[in-house]
Write a sequence for this structure.
């Protein structure tokens, strides 16, 4: 009887130990899954930020509209106020002047309806805001908003330390994590110096780390192929100003091959979009053949928009 009780006691201890092991393993897996989900959100944030910076360097707007701000002449405002304060608006034609000004403005708005979609004025700041259609052929690629770019790059530093710790905890290669941080410093120097060519080069080097991180964070093959495609596309885009069309063409070819190998022949519910992007990537090669940067940018922009819904 005593031996039976002793055996039962040992059996219960063994059951408790095994149960504890499975509970711990389950909790560890849950914590790891939560950590990976958080890290994926952080990498997506970085990826979107880098794409935004790439596009800002050529004034590419994803929504085809841009907001312009125009100063309103203070003398005009003061003169109108002076006329209204005389109390003789009807006799002096002040009211008619205001109506004439509004009518003129209306005519101007009608004539430019294709470019000025919406106009609002801020009387307190004497500024007029216009929502205008924008496109590759109408943009001035040399008029770069460096102030906006500098603010975007500086904001990355507030996120990178947290992302670094999260990637470390998930076992991502430390050299890859530190490499990104070092390249961010190089990017900051290029942006500070307002050097477009160097900034694009450093952005491309930074984006190169995104696919490496994803390999250790997700099994989503479509997402990884999407990022790899954009990585190769950005490499071609980043050297566009160099006019080295042979190298640009090599990067475009790598983009097509990578996309084809990873996605084209794998059946899934997004096959229509995949086929469409493949055709657009091959059409990008014609811009290389013509050695025309405007055609390249138009097709590059359209490809990015399609990839965003993949």
């Amino acid at each position: 009887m005593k031996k039976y009780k002793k055996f039962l006691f040992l059996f219960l201890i063994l059951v408790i130990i095994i149960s504890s092991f499975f509970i711990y393993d389950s909790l560890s897996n849950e914590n790891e899954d939560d950590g990976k989900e958080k890290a994926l959100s952080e990498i997506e944030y970085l990826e979107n930020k880098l794409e935004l910076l790439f596009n800002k360097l050529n004034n590419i707007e994803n929504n085809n509209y841009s907001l312009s701000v125009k100063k309103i002449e203070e003398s005009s405002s003061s003169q109108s106020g002076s006329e209204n304060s005389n109390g003789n608006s009807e006799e002096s034609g002040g009211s008619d002047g205001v109506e004439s000004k509004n009518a003129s403005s209306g005519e101007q708005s009608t004539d430019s309806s294709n470019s000025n979609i919406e106009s609002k004025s801020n009387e307190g700041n004497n500024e007029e805001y216009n929502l205008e259609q924008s496109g590759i052929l109408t943009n001035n690629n040399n008029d770069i908003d460096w102030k906006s770019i500098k603010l975007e790059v500086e904001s990355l530093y507030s996120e990178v330390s947290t992302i670094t710790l999260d990637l470390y905890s998930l076992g991502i290669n430390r050299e890859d994590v530190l490499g990104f941080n070092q390249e961010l410093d190089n990017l900051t120097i290029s942006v500070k110096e307002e050097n477009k060519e160097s900034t694009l080069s450093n952005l491309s080097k930074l984006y190169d780390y995104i696919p490496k991180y994803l390999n250790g964070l997700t099994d989503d093959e479509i997402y990884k192929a999407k990022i790899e495609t954009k990585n190769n596309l950005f490499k071609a885009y980043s050297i566009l100003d160099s006019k080295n069309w042979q190298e640009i063409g090599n990067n475009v070819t790598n983009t097509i091959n990578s996309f084809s190998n990873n996605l084209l022949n794998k059946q899934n519910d997004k096959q229509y979009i995949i086929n469409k992007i493949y055709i657009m990537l091959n059409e990008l090669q014609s811009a290389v053949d013509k050695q025309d940067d405007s055609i390249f940018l138009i097709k590059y922009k359209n490809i990015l928009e399609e990839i965003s819904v993949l």
Remarks:
- The beta strands are 65-71, 116-122, 127-133.
- The first helix runs from residue 2 to 56.
- The radius of gyration is 29 Å.
- The chain is about 70% helix and 5% strand.
